[in-house]
Specification:
This protein has helices at about 15-25, 35-40, 45-50, 65-75, 90-100, 120-130, 135-150, 160-170, 195-200, 210-215, 220-230; strands at about 5-10, 30-35, 55-60, 85, 110-115, 155, 175, 205. The protein has about 230 residues and is α/β, with parallel strands linked by helices. The protein has a single domain (about 1-230), classed as Aldolase class I (TIM Barrel, Alpha-Beta Barrel). α8 (about 160-170) links the parallel β6 and β7 (about 175). The structure holds cytidine-5'-monophosphate. Cytidine-5'-monophosphate binds next to loops. Cytidine-5'-monophosphate (C5P) binds near residues 59, 114, 117, 118 and 207.
Length: about 230
């Protein structure tokens, strides 16, 4: 089912709002907990999601020195989440230390390198961040760094997914935010594609938030998305 490849972010300010959303959309099997909810409410939502048999993407986008990242990864193990993000620009030693902190466990989250945020444009990269590489080349170099460091995959824009799939191979997880159904607005996302295009290009999972969570009727928005993906109810 293509809809099992949709991850919906719980980008809400508190646990009550998160639980309401989870109850409203029982069809969603994979939820993302990111900085807003984790900072506002701590880890409370993680055992709740486990009890509901949901898969969990803990999107903390860790970025620090190797010792601190390794400690954070060790601490994450107790939540038994499925996916965890680290910024690839933290560098090879930090990525390897993060993996090393989790590697001797029977089960650990899949580690994903964040390449270039899907809200950033080529102009942001060149003029503000002073990155001399062309955007897609920079994404590729961060994906290769993640892969060489032993990570399980990366977060990238759907516009980059086809190239990364060809170069990084079929076993490397590619997870795409910046996905916008045909009927929704872009918001602050800049490098976007539709869900169908992103899956056709080779994405394993799509993160789709505001088109569903901020819709007047999130349930209707979910059904529209199913329809767009060609799923029969
Ligand atoms: O609402 P929207 O569909 O734009 O949500 C996208 C989600 O994916 C947000 O939770 C955002 O933090 C996350 N994300 C992103 N770009 C990345 C990594 C994660 O938009 N590169």
């Amino acid at each position: 089912m293509k809809t099992e490849r949709i991850i919906v972010p719980l980008d809400v300010p508190g646990v009550d709002e998160a639980i309401s959303l989870i109850k409203l959309l029982p069809q969603v099997s994979f939820w993302k907990v990111g900085l807003e909810l984790f900072i506002a409410a701590g880890s409370y939502i993680l055992p709740y999601l486990k009890e509901q048999n949901k898969r969990i993407f803990l999107d903390l986008k860790l970025h620090d020195i190797p010792n601190t990242m390794a400690g954070a990864c060790r601490a994450v193990l107790k939540y038994q989440v499925d996916l965890l993000t680290l910024h690839a620009v933290a560098g090879r030693s930090a990525l390897q230390a993060s993996l090393g902190a989790m590697q001797d466990r029977l089960s650990r989250p899949k580690l994903l390198g964040v390449t270039v945020l899907t809200s950033l444009t080529a102009q942001d990269l060149a003029f503000d961040l002073k990155i001399p590489l062309e955007l897609s080349q920079y994404v590729l170099s961060l994906a290769l760094l993640s892969q060489e460091s032993g990570l399980d995959g990366v977060i990238c824009s759907p516009l980059e997914v086809q190239k990364l799939r060809n170069i990084c191979g079929s076993d490397f997880l590619l997870i795409c935010p910046g996905v916008r159904p045909t009927w929704s607005s872009q918001g602050d996302q800049r490098r976007t594609m539709t869900p169908k295009q992103a899956i056709q290009a080779g994405a394993d999972y799509l993160v789709i938030g505001r088109p569903i969570t901020l819709a007047k009727d999130p349930v209707a928005a979910w059904y529209l998305l199913e329809e767009e993906l060609g799923e029969n109810r």
